[in-house]
Specification:
Number of helices: 6
CATH class: Alpha Beta
Number of domains: 1
Number of strands: 9
Order of helices and strands: HHEHEHEEHEEEHEE
Distance between the termini: 46 Å
CATH architecture: 3-Layer(aba) Sandwich
Radius of gyration: 16 Å
Helix content: 25-40%
CATH superfamily: Vaccinia Virus protein VP39
Largest sheet: 7 strands, mixed
CATH topology: Rossmann fold
Shape: globular
Strand content: 25-35%
Length: 214
């Protein structure tokens, strides 16, 4: 696949299914045995364990495992890859505290609102402004008034591509601006993520809260 071509939805789904199937959920570059920064920011958000949490692009990630272990009770994992979701679901069984959605985020029509939106390494794949605009529209539909948004992307000095696809890199100020107006910035962080092969990928993180409902 040409690394500078962003595939359409069905091709994108095939791309990620193939990536997870051939590489394996624990060998992909974004794998973390424990998502430390995500958990730190969620803890700093002040959200109660009963809060509705959606992990967009959560795939086979371990955030859901950690939150279940910490007794969170209303979790949703959304990813367009059935292979990724199946891997996470296999680890956690049919725990009634988790809703699993195999869905392209940009086509998603949320049926409820969430107190906390978490996104690690999905937003940076949206290299077209039209896609970022659609992301913000879905976020607006999904987020409860006064809700918290936590997003991590490749930092300004991070990789330019991931898994053969181009990304947009951000420093924390640029990332907060890209999420749109209507938010207060609560925290920013930098993470030097070490991949399973030992490479270091710098990430920018922001945590913002919606003005709505204040």
């Amino acid at each position: 696949m040409n690394g500078d071509v962003v595939p359409a939805t069905e091709t994108r789904r095939e791309h990620w299914d193939d990536k997870y199937a051939t590489t394996g959920p624990t060998a992909v570059s974004w794998y973390q045995e424990r998502p430390v920064v995500s958990l730190q920011l969620i803890g700093r958000s002040g959200a109660p364990r009963s809060a509705g949490v959606v992990d967009v692009g959560g795939g086979a990630g371990t955030l859901v495992d950690a939150l279940l272990e910490d007794r969170w009770s209303d979790l949703t994992v959304l990813d367009l890859s059935d292979v990724a979701v199946a891997a996470a679901r296999l680890r956690n069984g049919d725990d009634e505290r988790v809703t699993w959605l195999v869905q392209d985020l940009l086509d998603w029509r949320p049926q409820r609102r969430y107190d906390l939106w978490h996104d690690r390494a999905t937003f940076h794949f949206l290299v077209d402004e039209d896609d970022r605009r659609q992301y913000r529209a879905v976020l607006s539909e999904a987020l409860a008034p006064g809700g918290t948004v936590i997003v991590g992307t490749f930092a300004a000095d991070g990789p330019t591509h991931c898994s053969g696809l181009p990304v947009t890199r951000y420093d924390p100020v640029e990332l907060a601006d890209a999420l749109g107006s209507g938010f207060d910035v609560l925290a920013t962080m930098r993470e030097d993520h070490r991949t399973p092969t030992g490479a270091v990928q710098p990430f920018s993180w922001v945590m913002v809260r919606s003005h709505a409902g204040r």
